[in-house]
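pasting for ref
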Amino acid sequence: MATATPSQQTPSSQKLMSLNEQTWLQLGGLAELMQEFDRAMNAYEATLRHNPYSVPALTQIASLCRGREQFPKAVEYFQRILNIEQNNGEIWGALGHCYLMMDDLQKAYTAYQQALYHLSNPKEPKLWYGIGILYDRYQSLEHAEEAFSAVLRMDPKFEKANEIYFRLGIIYKQQQKHDLSLQCFQYILRSPPRPLTEVDIWFQIGHVYEQQKEYQRAKEAYERVLSENPTHAKVLQQLGWLCHQPNTPFANQDSAIGYLTKSLEADSTDSQSWYLLGRCHMAQQKYNKAYEAYQQAVYRDGKNPTFWCSIGVLYYQIQQYRDALDAYSRAIRLNPYISEVWYDLGTLYESCNNQINDAIDAYQRAAELDPNNPHIKQRLHLLKNAQAGGPPSNTAPVPQDVNLFAYQNSAASVGPPPQFGQVCQMSIGYFSIFGIHNCDFQSLGPSSHGAPLNMPDCPPRPQDARYGEHRPPMVCVLHTHYLSCVTNII
């Protein structure tokens, strides 16, 4: 039997239904106080049988579903509330949090925008905490930093304050604000946010010291982690990479290989450990072992442009130039913004059949991406001088492998990567400009006797799509229009 609408009910029946609604609401609230959440849910559902438009009942059911991490069901009830009260800013904010937990960032953005528009006082810590996470997920680091900092200004005792300090520590590390990053991590060292432990914070502290090139302090921080967890795969990986660096006081390729081998024993699925092991073997000119390690890395992450650049360097060193060209081409298709790949492409053109014009074009692109690199400047000067009638260069160029730390830092500080389609279009344009498809393959020599490394066909990662069609179209608008209301409390 259908429930009568309010306009169809007599005053006495309306009063009775209102009393029943209030009674079930009170029973639900009492059950919640007793932490009997199933009974509370039943009571609130009974409330809706008496009044399907009861905003308090819908709100409590949505909150219970959200607390149980039943986010799609919570979204359903929050949307029912908004069908009744479209201007309810608090519900828009709660809806945004649910979409954020469902990884639907576009809808989360829209909901937060509506919350800020409808709230009479948008200085709500939980709301800005969610907005901070949203910006963080999009790698819009400056906006995330300001949102998280605003939460701490609004409520220094915010329930997730230590989590915010951890997130700020990561953001500052990515922005190369090392002192601020260390301050955040050291502040929460004794009370890290769950499920993190003190060991996890020491790992982050070690990584910051590593970026500061304070290698001894970094090593000591990592060793503190190993004293608690001797098989910590990531720490073993970092120690291996530290020992690989020639400018550390404890540089030793055998030690580096030992650490990386132990890391892979703890976690053989980590493509980065396989890749770093290949770099160590390259330093020892053990090309077969380097090939095997790179192959394992590519099998696990075939869309990493850094891997393909290093594979190109390997092929170049063993004079398999056609395979080197293929590897560099793959790296550029995946990311046309890595200067080392363009520089290495230039060295390949210069070494093979003396394709000077193509080499200059590639070096020029590398210089645009890394204008302060002295090796690129020197090579461009030598080739242009030779073209102008000066003495030819007699020194063979040496390819550069990717500077991992410089690449990570720059990638982290510029915000979301370009849309996938834009990368493809730009890389195709560069191929046309620099003549990669028109290269003189005969001059590159024979292909490898064994099968070259092939990029496996992998489905796009969720984050690739996220930065494509689903990137919020007005992220900066959300920030600009509403952050001023928060900064007023500074």
